[in-house]
Sequence to fold (687 residues):
Amino acid sequence: MSSALLQAELGTVFDRRFLFITGKGGVGKSLISAALAVRAARCGERTLWVEMSESPRGGHFFPGFEPRYALAPVCDQLWGMNLRVQPAIEEYLAVAFKIPLLTRLIARNTLFQVLTGALPGLDSLIPLGKIWYELGRRRGRKPYWDRVVLDAPATGHALAMLQFPQAALDIVKSGNVADRAREIDAILSDRSLTGLIAVTTLDELPVDETRELFDRVHTDTPYRFEALVCNEILPDIGRDQGERYRDWLDGTPDPELDSLNAADEQSRVRLAWLEHRRASQLKRLDQLASNQVPMFRAPWIPLTDEAELLNAMIEEFARA
Amino acid sequence: MIETSIERHRILIVGGSGGVGKTSVSAALGLASARAGYRTLVLTIDPARRLAAALGLDGIGPQAEDVTPRLRQGDSELSGELHAMMLDVRNTLDRAVERHAPSPERRDQILNNRLYQNIAGRLSGSQEYAAMQQLEEIASRGDYDRVILDTPPTTQALDFLTAPERLQAFFDSNLIRIFLTFSGRAGRGFFRVTDVLFRTLERLTGAQVIRDITEFFEVAESILEPFSAQAARARRLLRDPSTAFVVVTGANPHQLEEACGFSRALNGMGIQVGNVVVNRWLPALQNRPPEVPEAVASDELIQRVAYWEAALENLARLQTEAIDALEAEGAPGLVRLPEMPGAIHSLEGLAELCDRLCGGHAGAPAQ
Fold:
């Protein structure tokens, strides 16, 4: 596929009703998912942004918002929640058994909590079950949510979540779990509904992990990643004058550039460090391009305030 | 300050969020310890391939590899030894089963059980559990003067500590006895609440899963005592005065905040934090805040250079202020590691990182 076609496909993936976003820890997965959620909300879509974290970041991105299990408004048309397994089990049981008091007694039993905490697969079933529930909710004749954006866990757990439907159906053929596994499979396989998105930076480990994730998902599951967001792409400061810029970084005098503050030796070393890192990023970008997955390039934004960072990232998505 | 930690502690556990450079810092700590004359082991899990190659670790298994000869070629200061070992989760758990199983039949039953295979491979916590177990084994053998453990790459640093305890709670014999009593052997419906609970679990997970669990516990019961005893020793080891954590963090304010929370949580659990290592710090070069111009998209090279120079300086100031604040709050043994060009994938790079770790910062990123 040509790169132009690949890029055109990106927009359609970002516009799917359910976005499953994962990546190695520390690559900016939460930032990207929050930006995609706000982007949808600003288009007037009723959007739910779901974190799954012990230390959720929602409060940093959206000052005043406190991420909890209960849905809460974030801003116009955007709602947020932090999907933790224990409260989700309680809710899941209430839906499955329809006896609230009994389920509460069971779910809060210590023995039950310890057992469910250690049962393989339950930490995949429960969050995906919650997503299935939210996607199926309706208000009148319309779906309750126009868009659900899941800031899924880091690659290892996310892979386990994607492996879950087949793994569960291998073990159980009927009953509650099998039904849910089939429904979740239907959601994940529906390419007009679901977009699987991976986020990575162009550092060595995240790139290796992303390639491994793609391989594993390809071999172990029927699902496909359809978009890759490369985050923290360093700026091409030299652009059409790249050679002149690099010569100057190497110490060649340049009357115009030498007049800058940056002409100070240490500043120049710092800019050279940036350019050096950019060169290694470009090599890894080539490695990733061979995956034939449409790629969104999100720039490195030199801000530390997360609310400001989010706003800048939303602008980047709007520009594209 | 890092040297003091190495001198005082026999075990250093390197922890922090994903993607902050834990493995590189662990390897550099190992080198520093070997330079100080100690026979040192770095226990790591899934390291960067090129870092592994630099250490001569390509394709090795769970056996310790002596990398001292390779290091000596370029490093005359090396008076101790450096060994490296990669953690193999499945292998570690299998060996523990083999060691503790009362008979070969029991051993095979456990190793072939589907739940065990699930736990050993995938269950969250098994990596952490295996790492702690491996650490405890190595420490009790006393083959090394210093052991440096690079914790598994979980995003949530605290998971590393809570996961083994969660698993331990799961393995608690009383709990399992209750489970066994009501899941088959003593007949069900004997005590109603537990029976309802059990049926709920069955509906939630499927009957086959319950059978697997029951079988697993029936056979596992025989090896629980030694397993529990070992886990308890591992927990004591974490709190031993000769053990300390080295918390590694990135230099951005939210990362520092997270590291600070992690250190506090460790202290709350009675575990010492020896050092906080701030990695990938961009040192400020000027003594006043820069004016960041608007012209990022300018067609003029000079304006782009001016913008990025100011933006970098601004970022450097924000990072530096946040680190200063952390130090003022009394973060233990704070070390600042300035940005380095590229990842560490050669012995020279590792030696340089080691110098920086021991000597403090040089001021500007090296070229």
